[in-house]
Design brief:
There is one protein chain. The protein has one domain (2-199): 3-Layer(aba) Sandwich (Rossmann fold), CATH 3.40.50.170. It is 34% helix and 24% strand. It is built from 6 helices and 9 strands. The strands form 2 sheets. Strands 3-2-1-4-5-6-7 form a 7-stranded mixed sheet. Strands 8-9 form a two-stranded antiparallel sheet. The model has no long low-confidence stretch (mean pLDDT 96). The chain binds 5-O-phosphono-beta-D-ribofuranosylamine. 5-O-phosphono-beta-D-ribofuranosylamine is lined by residues 7, 9-13, 43, 87-88, 108-110, 171, 174.
Length: 201
């Protein structure tokens, strides 16, 4: 199963996927391509470190979202990509694009969806006084952060947690469940019944 991992920044989730592949714990999945929409994304350094091809697709070279997504589709097809992984990719994809890859785009989000979708999920959880938060791996649907849930992990929020400390706690689990979800998908252990995902671990 050929993966394209899409990033915009730090790339710690990309690194956890590459590390899992290196250790042989990514099942039948292989990272075939890294795509960044930011030329200066820190995570791009992992392409060299792990000897993977990276392509930069910056939005300012395109006139519209549709044009951008068409170029993205072209690149994905040229590389024979089976599954797209959004690992901190900060662009919203057009419904046209999502429907071309339905149930073949996976996202990691730093909250227990459907709570706290969108930006600054950790801050939202703290501001809400939540006692628990966590992270979610889900398939991407047309609307942001609402697609079928594949795996989740919960963390406790303590009174002295800050946005930074909570983000770090959650990130540790992100780095485990994202590669695990990819492994399970690549081994055919995830099936979808309407909106419900059945995971056979
Ligand atoms: C992660 O917290 C992820 O859940 C969110 O964006 C952040 C990306 O971090 N979608 P990194 O670039 O993988 O380090």
């Amino acid at each position: 199963m050929r993966l394209a991992v899409l990033i915009s920044g730090r790339g710690s989730n990309l690194r956890s996927i590459l590390e899992s592949e290196r250790k042989g714990s990514l099942g039948k999945a292989i990272v075939s391509l890294i795509i960044s929409d930011k030329r200066d994304a820190k995570g791009l350094k992992y392409s060299k470190e792990y000897n993977k091809k990276a392509i930069i697709l910056e939005s300012n070279s395109y006139n519209s979202r549709e044009e951008y997504d068409n170029q993205l589709l072209k690149v994905l097809h040229e590389h024979d990509i089976d599954l797209i992984v959004l690992a901190g990719f900060m662009r919203i994809l057009t419904p046209f694009f999502v429907n071309k890859f339905i149930n073949r785009i996976v996202n990691i989000h730093p909250s227990l969806l459907p709570a706290f979708p969108g930006l600054n999920a950790q801050k939202q959880a703290l501001n809400h006084g939540s006692k628990i938060s966590g992270c979610t791996v889900h398939f991407v649907s047309e609307e942001v952060d609402v697609g079928p849930i594949i795996l989740q992990r919960a963390v406790d929020i303590s009174n002295d947690d800050t946005e930074e400390s909570l983000s770090q706690k959650i990130l540790k689990h992100e780095h485990e469940i994202l590669p695990l979800a990819l492994k399970l998908i690549s081994e055919g252990k995830i099936s979808i019944k309407e909106r419900n995902i059945i995971v056979e671990e």
